[in-house]
Specification:
This protein has about 350 residues and is α+β, with helices and mostly antiparallel strands. It is built from eleven helices and ten strands. The strands form three sheets. A six-stranded mixed beta sheet has the order 1-2-3-4-6-5, with helices on both faces. Strand 1, helix 1 (about 20-30) and strand 2 form a beta-alpha-beta unit. Helix 3 packs across helix 8 (about 275-285) and helix 4 (about 165-180) runs parallel beside helix 9.
């Protein structure tokens, strides 16, 4: 096809042939014209992400990482499916465009979605914003989460997205198993947390929602000037789950320090304009379907799960196939999050 060999600027290191991708997209997408530029997006620790740009089109590509991975990890097909389902709702998500399961183009399965213009905040203290702006951002985050949990999975074709019911029991079994199978074995707090969580499992109340699985400030794209979420990103861990799992995960911010993945523990929230965790939860609860009462278990579980995720990042860093250049450093946060979770468990 004419023009299918045009390659523009390449920014960052690619683990695939951009010419092969360019030729594929010429036949797979309408309106692809002119040179293709590719930029590797830094900061992610999971599925490698790239900006793919043409003169008249701006896209985002997400792929599985190269090399060996856990069988259930990095499921870009699930990401694409949930984005496709939510595109018909008022949940703010980028529009998915294409999924390609074969590794023949970029070495792994991948999908493309539209690229939105907005703001991403990687520090939960929101430096550079005014107090009213910070407050608006946090309340906007609560609004977006409530909007997601208001969607009926069956109505958008996701009734079989995963097995509903007994969510926390199944998730605890999954993440405990992932911890046991990891070559890392020197974080005693994680062993203690498994025992504590098993002893404090809440009864299954039957509530089911589309759970994002990694709902936090860094995975939200905000309007360029308004405190409104225009895109919920990174759906790799999404499932049918309990809404309090996402809410507890979101509340980790108040329980971790600024040097622990950008938390706000120890900061003067009132001076910064950041709502208290109780006000944040109340804002969510006023809009969401009845989700039940947030308990210490939900936050402890979230901290435990994120600690195990950090362990996985460190393991991949040792294998040389982590998505982020600072994976080794972030992997060391596993012990920090496990310690925070254990402190909260003991206090409760």
């Amino acid at each position: 096809m004419a023009g299918s060999d045009e390659i523009g600027t390449i920014t960052g290191t690619l683990d695939f042939d951009p010419l092969r991708l360019r030729r594929f997209l010429s036949g797979a997408l309408e309106g692809v014209q002119g040179p293709m530029s590719v930029e590797r997006i830094g900061g992610g620790q999971s599925n490698p992400t790239y900006f793919v740009s043409f003169p008249d089109q701006r896209l985002v590509l997400r792929k599985r990482p190269a090399g060996p991975t856990l069988p259930s990890a990095h499921a870009v097909d699930r990401e694409y499916r949930v984005l496709n389902a939510l595109a018909t709702t008022d949940v703010p998500v980028p529009r998915p465009l294409l999924f390609h399961a074969d590794p023949d183009v970029v070495g792994t399965p991948f999908y493309l979605m539209e690229r939105l213009d907005g703001r991403v905040f990687d520090q939960c203290a929101l430096p550079g914003l005014t107090s009213p702006e910070r407050r608006g951002i946090y309340l906007g985050m609560a609004d977006a989460l409530a909007r997601l949990h208001a969607v009926d999975p069956e109505e958008v074709g996701l009734s079989d997205y995963s097995r509903p019911g007994s969510y926390f029991a199944r998730q605890l079994a999954r993440w405990s198993r992932q911890w046991r199978e990891s070559p890392t074995d020197d974080i005693q707090a994680l062993d203690e947390l498994v025992a504590w969580l098993e002893g404090h499992l809440p009864p299954d109340d039957g509530r089911v929602a589309i759970a994002h699985g990694d709902f936090r400030l860094g995975n939200l794209l905000f309007h360029p000037s308004e405190p409104r979420v225009i895109g919920i990103l990174d759906w790799e861990l999404s499932t049918l789950g309990h809404p309090l799992a996402d809410l507890g995960f979101c509340c980790m911010t108040w329980h971790t320090a600024p040097d622990e993945y950008g938390g706000i523990l120890g900061l003067d929230h009132a001076a910064l304009g950041i709502p208290s965790v109780d006000e944040f939860v109340q804002r969510y609860q006023l809009q969401a379907k009845p989700a039940g009462e947030l308990q210490p278990f939900h936050v402890v579980f979230a901290l435990f799960r994120f600690a195990v995720i950090f362990v996985g990042i460190a393991d991949r860093a040792r294998q040389g196939n982590a998505a982020g250049s600072n994976a080794g450093e972030i992997g060391r946060l596993a012990g920090n999050f496990a310690g925070r979770a254990l402190d909260l468990a003991r206090a409760s």
